[in-house]
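Model it.
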Amino acid sequence: MLDLFAVPDDLQALPGGQGQSVLAGDLVLSPGRDRLITDLLNPRLARLAVDLDTRPRRDVRIAMPIPSREGTWVVDGWSASRYETGSRTCTDVAVVRATGALLHAELALAVREWPLATQPPRSRWDRAERVAFGDQPLEPAEFTGEQAGFARELLNLRTDRSFGADQLVHGDLAGNVLLDAADVPVVIDLAPYWRPVRWSDAVTVLDLVLWSDADPHLLDDWSAGAARQAMLRAAIFRVLSDVEPDTEHIVRYRRALAPLL
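Modeled.
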């Protein structure tokens, strides 16, 4: 695999990415990639990354995906992207959310359709997202216990979903925004979903509050109207995509989501 990406075997573990991504030479290698998704996504991201990097003013960037020597985007489940020397993870709420807004404006122009939006779900995260939006039922065989109970409580609070048009969005932006050596935001590990931008923003805010010590009062702005409906779906998505969250996790969700309940 390393030979096909033309990198040395001196690997270094990288933070984030569930502790599985590694640095090899000037590439970041990430495991567990779905070939169909990556083959659809990476050519589009590569074109957009070049476009963003060659503009006179850089407001947002995307980590450049790199194919193997054979021209494939995935080798034995691993994909590669260019390593951003001198970069560091950004947890500033305003910067992360502004980066998401810029990214999604670019994606709306660059990607007009996403064929997998109408295909069966391919992962636990996909199934959780479909349940959150009412596209498939909550299956007792897969989602059980406190996890399913809290998800049902949230599902019962949903009304209409008129909070924006569907487009390609990043469903896991928190933790995946870096600042490069020039302090320009760089988006990595795009998790593709065909949903409204407001839902992606809600997932971002919820993740930052839950796991990055962001101000919990941020959720106050999501307690009514269309914003509340987006946040409810974000919460259902996160609760169900967690692998058997324990009681402490559910309590944490309830505390954060109190303004909506």
